[in-house]
Every structure is written in C-alpha cells, then in structure tokens.
Design goal:
Distance between the termini: 23 Å
Strand order of the largest sheet: 1-2-3-4-5-6-7-8
Order of helices and strands: HHHHEHHEHEHEHEHHEHEHEH
Number of strands: 8
Number of helices: 14
Radius of gyration: 24 Å
Oligomer: single chain
Structural class: alpha/beta
C-alpha cells in the first residue's frame, strides 16, 4: 500500500531555526484540488483504509468527491479480505461515486446482492469485469445487466454463467464493443465431447444475433463449434480481435481460416495461454498437456495486507446487508 507523509507536528522544526520552521507543512491544509490529484493516484483500497482516514479534511474529500470513484478496481481484495469486508468496501465506493461510476472490476467476492446494489446505483456504468465470482447466478446477473444500457466492455471470467446469458447481454447492452466470456476447458471435455454433446453453440449464437457492434471477443475455453464461430464471423463485421484459445471443438479448416483472415488479431485454439491473467486456473487438457499452466497468477500482485491494514477493519463487524458503508465508512467528520 502506498504511504503518504504524516501530517506535520505543530512542534516540527522546534529548536532547528526559522528555516526548518518555514519548511514545516500542515497536510490537512493542502488545497482541495492538489489533494484530489494525490488521491487520484491511489487505488480504492488505499483511500478507504489509508489516506481517507488521515484527518478530517482528507476524510471529507474521500467521502464527497465522486470523481475519485468513477473507476472502482477491487480485484484481489477477495483474496486479501473476508467476503463481507470486501463487499463493505465495494458498497462504500459505489455510494461515494454518487451515480457517476463508469467502471467496476472485482473478483471472487461479488454476489447477486452486490451486483444488484451496483445496478441500482451506477446507471452510467461502461465497464464491468467479474472473475471467479461463483456467488453470481445466471438469474442475478441477467437482472443486473439489464440496468447497464451504456455498457461498452464486459469481462466475465470463470463465473459459471452459461446458456442464454449472451443473448441477454446483447439485448440489454446495445453499445457493447468488448466482450470476454472465459471458461475452463477440462480433460473430461477433451475426452468425452464427441460422445456426450459437450459441444454447445448457445452462447455463440447469442453473440451473433445480438452483438453486431463487437470489436473485441474473447471466448477462452468455450464449447462452440465451427457453426457457432461462423455465425459470429458473419454477423459481427466490426471484429478486430478474436481469441478462441482452448476452444477445441473448433476445426481450423481452409474455410474457417479464410473467414478469420479479415480480423487483425486472432488467437487460435492451440495458441499459448501464457499471457492470460488467470492461466493458473485453467486445467490442462490432453491437447495442451505439459504447458505452462503452473505459473502463479499472482506474479504481479506486489502488495499484501499487513497487521496494521487488518486493524483498519476492526469495525467491519457492524456491516449491515441493508446498509452500504459499514461502521468504518460512515461520513462523520468529527475527528
């Protein structure tokens, strides 16, 4: 977590001469525009658990400046905090955005209830990214997504959503340009797909019929077949990027290669998965056995929660499902 200089002590510079006294600064008196610029370089967790708690002036800015909360990135917080703690943090950020939030990114801890909370308070949302959110159901997701007509980017990775969800998304979000729906392809699928009907074009046909404006499509591990991919290529003429890695029901014959040739950036079923953020969660299939799936997805996670960080959440037990900020996030400035 980024550290900020502590507020200057009234005794700073005592006995060191007038020059040292002149250099002392009261950080609480920093101009609001300068303070907002500093806060703008911090992430949501750093503001809620650190800078936003330093003093009355800093707490007021953190609670009342909605521009700080337009982009809410809480990825990895579900791994560092309990689900209730991470959800309390998310609700606080959503409330402080005051209807101006344009991006919400999170993993693991998101539930149907939290997604509903966002849908009622973020009508201008343009980017939604959810990964490993197993507490989000098809029904809860479908209900929430209908409240985001301005959505331009949607990333749903390993969230167990399936079936008609793509059709629902396309009809609810006519401005969608970037869509990522990633799943796990397992050894079981590789062995039995030809016999058990594990090929499925439901999602592909939903995309083809409702998302004509797509520019980027990522379907890692999807069960679509050549028929489904052909429908997408025929009905999504603006595609510039297509990622169908680990889609092993796809047969890249000459016809399919010719169809894909018009797309600038194409990743094919057997291409390397090494640059995929959540590659460590993919189960190696027979077709890709011995590849580099053991790489830890947290290589780029540079920060950890310390005992001091954990202490910031002592009041989190007061969190109420019907509330938003939990005990520690109320906007009482009498500090």
């Amino acid at each position: 977590m980024s550290s900020l200089p502590p507020p200057a002590s009234p005794m700073a510079g005592a006995g060191a001469g007038a020059g040292a006294e002149d250099e002392a600064r009261d950080w609480a008196e920093m101009p609001s525009d300068a303070l907002a610029a500093v806060f703008g370089k911090l992430d949501v967790a750093e503001i809620l658990t650190g800078a936003g708690l330093v003093c009355r002036a800093w707490r007021r800015l953190a609670a009342t400046d909605p521009t700080l909360w337009r982009r809410v990135d809480l990825c990895h917080q579900g791994d560092l905090l309990e689900t209730e703690e991470a959800e309390a943090m998310a609700r606080a950020a959503i409330d402080r955005a005051a209807g101006t939030m344009e991006a919400f990114w999170a993993d693991t801890f998101v539930t149907d209830n939290l997604l509903h909370y966002i849908s009622q308070r973020a009508p201008s949302l343009k980017s939604l990214q959810l990964s490993l959110c197993h507490y989000v159901s098809n029904e809860g997701f479908s209900e929430a997504i209908s409240c985001f007509p301005q959505l331009e980017e949607l990333d749903v990775t390993f969230c167990s959503l399936h079936g008609s969800v793509c059709d629902t998304v396309g009809r609810a979000c006519p401005q969608l340009k970037h869509f990522r729906l990633n799943e796990r392809w397992s050894i079981l699928q590789s062995e039995f797909a030809p016999y058990e009907g594990m090929d499925d074009d439901t999602e592909a046909l939903g995309i083809a019929s409702t998302m004509p404006g797509l520019q980027e499509l990522q379907l890692i591990g999807n069960n679509l077949t050549n028929d489904g991919l052909m429908a997408i290529l025929d009905r999504c003429p603006h595609l510039e990027s297509l990622d169908i890695r680990q889609c092993y029901n796809i047969q890249m014959d000459d016809v399919m290669k010719a169809k894909c040739a018009r797309i600038r950036d194409v990743k094919l079923p057997h291409d390397s998965i090494s640059d995929f953020k959540y590659r460590a969660y993919i189960v190696s299939s027979i077709a890709n056995s011995g590849s580099d799936f053991e790489v830890d997805m947290y290589d780029d996670l540079l920060d950890v929660v310390t005992e001091d960080d954990d202490a910031d959440f002592d009041d989190i037990d007061d969190f109420d499902d019907t509330g938003s900020d939990g005990g520690m996030y109320n906007d009482d400035f009498d500090m």
